[in-house]
Amino acid sequence: MPTMDEVSGPSRLAEPGERISAEELQLAARNHGIPLEALRYDVTPAGLHYLLIHYDIPDLDAAEHRLTVDGRVDRPLSLDLTDLRTRPRVTRRVTLECAGNGRALLEPRPVSQPWLVEAVGTAEWTGTPLAPLLREAGIDPEAVDVVFTGADHGVERGVEQDYQRALPAAEALREEPLLAYEMNGSPLLPQHGAPLRLIVPGWYGMAHVKWLSRITVLDRQFDGFQNAVAYRLRQRAEEAGVPVTRIEPRALVRPPGFPDFMSRTRVLRPGPCRLDGRAWSGYAQLTGVEVSTDGGATWAAARLAPPEAGGGPDLAWRRWWYEWSATPGRYTLSARATDASGRCQPVEQPWNRGGFANNLVQRVPVTVLDE
Amino acid sequence: MPTMDEVSGPSRLAEPGERISAEELQLAARNHGIPLEALRYDVTPAGLHYLLIHYDIPDLDAAEHRLTVDGRVDRPLSLDLTDLRTRPRVTRRVTLECAGNGRALLEPRPVSQPWLVEAVGTAEWTGTPLAPLLREAGIDPEAVDVVFTGADHGVERGVEQDYQRALPAAEALREEPLLAYEMNGSPLLPQHGAPLRLIVPGWYGMAHVKWLSRITVLDRQFDGFQNAVAYRLRQRAEEAGVPVTRIEPRALVRPPGFPDFMSRTRVLRPGPCRLDGRAWSGYAQLTGVEVSTDGGATWAAARLAPPEAGGGPDLAWRRWWYEWSATPGRYTLSARATDASGRCQPVEQPWNRGGFANNLVQRVPVTVLDE
Q: Which residue of A has its CA nearest to B257?
């Protein structure tokens, strides 16, 4: 008789030189990245923000949906969207990036969603701050983890589950996290978590639980799949590893010129060319972006748009630009970001078995024609 | 010195067993399909409709954008969006499908955008009918083709071009084609052709030119790249072939149960299960949808939602459903559509070098657990 175990295999690494499998392509066809020319927008328009959906988009009725707050709290809560909308309302511009961004460029390649560099987007998220709600519920001062449960249901490596991910209580009680019900001024789209999702500025996407239905306070570490098994940094399968948390600094180049359809190689004509793009870090404010036009051999400082007022980490990406004089030839363009915590993007791949938090510099092949 | 020729290679077929290349993955990461669970919606929400963008999304200013109508017309026109919005306004619900849908399942596989089955979507398009505008411009009664030029610019197989595709004049003068400026009640999104695109109900996506800037009437056949070289049905590279036109009938199953993350295999528990999905054809009204739960060995009639009033082809997909009694085991679910022109979906692949108009039946692997 069929069992759950036979439906999903163990995690694996691709063999040397092994190309993308049918399963990886199937994920790439449904979870999409930002088209890189859309780095032109300060706020990513609907439909261009990256998407990573573990299971299926659930079919939730906003009018019926309820959020439960329970576990180690004095006063458990059950709230509907009207309750949440009558609470204090804030809007934050936040850059989200998938923890697996860049995975498909790693060698050996962890076999999972095969991102290149495009799993990022920036939106204006509107909702109510999480921390005051936890305090109103009377969160236990001894709380260790806060578990967020979504309504998306599936199986992963043999474990049937609703998607669940926990934050340390101290992170959940910071000022930034939001219970968001709007994106770019409109109600959340189904694929972005309608009617309610968590936003944890500065953290990789796995923390921003979509289709949020339950918040559970624990007096111990959460041992659920997405915290204890999946999103962890480890070199070998048998290691416990450490959890994936905040976003490493990264800069992306908005590819200049125009593309070839199949190879996406960029074509330019000679002359002055302003290169630009975006940069971000979930750890600290950016201190600089550098540009290379020779595949990383030499670097020059780019200009960087000023940060938001306040001096905290850059919750949203910042624009950078660099004046290039393009002469005929073949080039590889890259940009790299450095932040105030001292983190910088490596030119050698930072490898781990899940392919997480990999901020290897992007490489954009460009051909400058003779005329 | 670098030349345009070296930027793009010739078309090619994958070797037997050759997996997806880095170039195909790069296209899959930016051009996305509909997540199949979104077949639940009559009208596909923003961001879930399939997208195929040949080059880059151009950055157009709606306030400055103009549409030129020229060539074999008595009175050339230049219109802005305000002019177009003051013309008669109609809304049509239309299903669009990429001509290359299903390409990545073909053997041998044409190397291009590697669609599986998900390159489809349905929207409410609002705009002004094309034919009255052509008549007002005084279209030459001897007109043969009408060329639609978009603002997206790139190179394809060595040919630098703005995207251009022509319709036969008789098709352009039918009642259905629209110059659309809204999608689902909102202004077009950048990736769907903002501020203006052509909609040609019943035709594959290559005809629905986005970022429309020019309409040129010819008294001869258009010999541009997308008509004469690219979107053609041919068995051998040296054949002239015939142009890709209308959408072959197809049915898709909305995958039941819940998925495994990596394999997307569906898991169900035993019991009654209503299977459903969508079906469409650009040639004629659908006459039936059949369902198979045994990989195509046997078929049973599904129920089909009634067509729109009027008796013409189904411009938008129709819902179908089938009551299945799921007992433990492993199944392959399929559905196939038949239309009033006698077209039906094949169980053997309809192969051509471009992988176009391939409506091979979908196969959805399902595991029904013991309990």
A: A154
Nearest CA among B106, B108, B325, B123 for reference residue B210: B123
Element (H, E) at B134: helix B130-136
Q: State the DSSP code for B354.
A: T
Report the C-alpha dihedral over residues B104, B106, B107, B112, rounded to 10 degrees: -40
Residues of A in contact with B154 (CB under 8 A): 258-261
- Domains and their CATH numbers in chain A: 4-243 (3.90.420.10), 250-368 (2.60.40.650)
Note if the pTM is more than 0.95: yes
Neighbours of A13 (CB within 10 A): 15
Tracing tokens 């936890």 back to the chain, one arrives at A134
Whether residues A190 and B114 touch (CB distance < 8 A) is answered with no
B196, B133 in Cβ contact below 8 A? no
B6 — pLDDT class (breaks 50, 70, 90): confident
| pLDDT reported for residue A271 | 97
Write down the pLDDT at residue B315: 87
Residues of chain A positioned with their CB less than 8 A from the CB of B21: 19-20
Identify the three-state secondary structure at position A40: helix
Contact B155 A267 (CB under 8 A): yes
pLDDT digits (tens, 9 = 90+) for B208-227: 999 999 999 999 999 999 99
> Quick check: B111 contacting A, CB < 8 Å?
yes
| A341 in contact with B, Cβ within 8 Å | no
Instruction: Give CA separation, B255 vs A54, A149, B102, B275, in Å.
Output: 15, 23, 17, 8
Average pLDDT over residues B341-368: 96
B8 has a chain A CB within 8 A of its CB:
yes
Locate tokens 């007096």: which residue? A219
CA distances, B340 to each of B248, B313, B361 (Å): 12, 9, 18
pLDDT category, B310, cuts 50, 70, 90? low
Mean of pLDDT values over B232-244: 96
Phi (first) and psi of residue B211, to 5 degrees = 50, 45
- Contact of B191 with chain A, judged by CB distance below 8 Å, is answered with yes
pLDDT at A229 over 80: yes
By C-alpha distance, the chain B residue nearest A48 is: B47
Q: How far is B30 from chain A (nearest CA, A)?
A: 5
